[in-house]
Amino acid sequence: MLLGRTLALYFSGRFLKAILGLFLLAAVLIFLFDVLELVRRGADREGFSVLRVSLISLLRVPLLLEQVIPFAVLFGSIAAFVSLSRALELVVTRASGISVWQFSMPALVVGIGIGVFSITVYNPAAVWLQQKSDEVATGLFGTEQNFLMQTTNQVWIRQDGLDGESVILAKQLLNGGTRLLGVTIFAFDHQGTFQERIEADEADLGKQIWHLKNATVYTTERDPQQYATFQISTFLSATQVRESIGSPESISFWHLPQFIDLARNAGLPAYRYALQYQTLLARPLLLAAMILIAAAVSLRVSRFGGLGGLILGGIIAGFVLYVLSELSKDFGGAGIVPPIVAAWAPGIFGVLMGLTILLHQEDG
């Protein structure tokens, strides 16, 4: 017997509401904790206000929530399955001759739809909002708030140019590394002899040149000289800067293929960015795996009871997939295994695990 359209839409709505409910709950919790952390670290700084901090957190929470999507789907699906079972709706559905595969199909469609939406719309929007968050936070937190930046610590760049080699230290980076704030540059000549130290408020990457603003040049031969604008040559391209200091998560889904091609054409390793791209592509499969696992741990409980076992089973399943995903990312990011294998392996493993458990439970 086929699942009717009305019943399929009803089941789809129940799963979508449960998943979105958990996702929004996670968003509120992350936002509150993030605001409290920003208030703790920035309350004594010039330019601080609760409204500004709240805006910073609100803009950057969507990117943080990307990591929550698989777990929201897993536990939201478990909640939906349990709710339908307690209301005896699944019992009636089964009694009418509809199999577990048929009434699980609406949930799978919802999960795959969420996956497609998250990579094509949500991810680019979250990356854009994160960039706006960095702009709002500019000058407020300084070097202590590295978790607001796109790197994990202060940025060091070694470069070469027409004038010789130089080392750049930046306190904050924006726009994928093409704009640096709080810049200190140690410049050397072609023989490697130290020439000058340059401190500037900002550095913008142009074509084979860094444009510095409000720069102060220190040398051993004369007093410090101040310049409204200053320039220093570089052979670095925007691609090379991003590969050196940028985070793959700071590049949207639609821009990743172009950036991967640019990196490869420049002779740079693109493992991390290829892995991020493949991970996003594999997200619908991973979410389908979460729904199958939710069905596997929920439907047995609906017949035999045991809410504690349900919760434990869901936590264990989510933990296993999380560990597998992290190991795959480490191997793929280091180039030990191909990025496509590292990205798709957790989803394939999850689908096979869910199907195996369901086949054992339903068909023996």
TrEMBL record:
Q: Which UniProt keywords apply?
A: Cell membrane, Membrane, Transmembrane, Transmembrane helix
Kindly indicate whether the keyword Transmembrane helix belongs to this entry: yes
Q: Where in the cell is it found?
A: Cell membrane
Cellular component annotations (GO), alphabetically ordered: ATP-binding cassette (ABC) transporter complex
Q: What InterPro entries does this protein map onto?
A: LptG, LptG/LptF_permease
Please give, as recorded in its UniProt entry, the membrane topology of this protein: Multi-pass membrane protein
**Pfam families tied to this protein:** LptF_LptG
What biological process terms from GO does the record include? lipopolysaccharide transport; transmembrane transport
Stretch forming the signal peptide: none
Parts of the chain that traverse the membrane: 15-36, 57-83, 103-122, 280-298, 304-324, 336-359
Q: Where is this protein primarily located?
A: membrane
Q: Which domain of life is it from?
A: Bacteria
Matching NCBIfam families:
LptG_lptG (TIGR04408)
- The protein here is known as LPS export ABC transporter permease LptG
